[in-house]
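Please, structure for the following, as tokens.
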Amino acid sequence: MDHNKNLFDGMFLFCTVVEQDGLSAAARTLGHTPSHVSKEIARLETRLGARLLNRTTRRISLTEAGRIYYENARRIVEDAKATEDRLQITGDKPFGQLRMSVPVIFAHGCLNEWLPEYLKQYPDVTLNIDVSERRADLIAEGFDLLVRIGKLPSSDLIAREIFQTRRLTVASPDYLASHGTPHHPDELKDHELIDFSFHGATQNWMYSVTGKTDISVPISPRVRCNDALTEKALALAGHGITRLPELACGAELANGKLVPVLQSFEHAPVGVHVVYASKQNLPAKTRAMIDFLVEKTK
């Protein structure tokens, strides 16, 4: 038997012939001519290498091979119909497993707070969330969507900006009271620094000057780590100045536990994007998550 892309050709038609007990009746049901149905059955038998039907001018009967094929083919056709019926019933109702990959800072900064609302709103969706700083491959790894912060590489994927965030230089009021407040990036050399280091040690902190080349400030931090929450905890405890995405420290800035410094030297905000494969035939579960994230960030 030739196991190829034509594997299912003729299966539905054959089942209809058996269930309608004749070629002519099946042809009327399917909107074909009897000769077309007869040719398709003959083509199916040739591909399978077995005679499926005994035919006379008035009736048909199943051969032994035909009975075995029909019993198995009928289950496949019924499963396919059930799948289509389920999709039609659910329609635009989100359901199934949604796989997404998000940066740690996005998860801790806002997603964790929002997820209970999403789960309550969409009870038929299950979530599989990869929280990491790695650059997951949406297509190769089978994700439904990604969340990415900053400039995105050119690709065929769809990227929708949902909000913007800035990287800020922050410290606790107690630290600044004890060590003074820097007013220019060059003054950071006189301070305790806490640095985020993910892909190797950071050698410089970059700042912007309007109309001039960026300032590159060499740093010798007291602490290096690859977790923004650790950075923030040390800064809150008064152990130095650090740089954090506004997304990671918004609450602490609002309540005054952290204070921004060097704001006039910070770079422009960067986009936070939700990335997915295509707008065409977008699954309801994916569209629901995208719409949910957009609504939460308005």
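The mean pLDDT is 88. Residues 64-90 form the longest helix (27 residues).
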